[in-house]
Amino acid sequence: MKFLKSILILLILLIPVMGCAQSGGESDITVKQLMERMNSDTSLVILDVRTPAELTGPLGKLDSVINIPVQILGERISELEKYKSKPIIVICRSGNRSTFATKMLRKNGFDALNVLGGMKAWNAEFK
Q1: What share of the chain is helix, strand, coil (3-state, %, to 5)?
Q2: pLDDT for the residue 19
Q3: What is the pLDDT of residue 122?
Q4: Torsion-angle region of residue 118: left (phi > 0), alpha (psi -120 to 50) or beta?
Q5: Dihedral angle, C-alpha 52, 57, 96, 113, nearest 10 °
Q6: How many CB atoms lie within 10 A of CB 26?
Q7: Smallest Cα–Cα separation from 44: which of 36, 53, 52, 54?
Q8: Alpha-carbon distance 115 to 13, whole Å?
Q9: Bridge partners, 66 (sequence order)
Q10: Which regions of the chain are under pLDDT 70?
């Protein structure tokens, strides 16, 4: 059963969502907008949906992120309940996994925003 669940998640992640991730829709923000929010809101909630290994990789991570990999977000979504009254900024490597995670969070009543281009865009802009 766990294998089938993993396959299903993998298939969902492989669905081409790049157009959505780069669309600039109402649930998307740019890395510049994220930086502005980080500078003005010290209690900002940032959810990184990459694997723990990716957070220590070459793209690095943002300070004070909550790390819940998208593959297990459904199982651990209750950990975010205390942030339900606040916007949750969702980031990943390129914006694909965070698009999926943002949709999942919004379906569960969270005010979630996807970071367009993810950490790749962040590093291109600020490093």
Answers
A1: 50, 15, 35
A2: 38
A3: 97
A4: left
A5: 70
A6: 6
A7: 36
A8: 17
A9: 47
A10: 1-24
pTM of the model: 0.81
Angle at 71 between CA 8 and CA 77, to 5 degrees: 115
- Which residues, 6 or more positions from 12, have their beta carbon under 8 angstroms from its beta carbon? 100
What CA dihedral angle connects 12, 14, 15 and 16, to 10 degrees?
150
For every residue of 27-83, DSSP letters joined together read TEE-HHHHHHHHHH-TT-EEEE-S-HHHHTSTT---TT-EE--GGGHHHHGGGGGGG
Length of the chain: 127
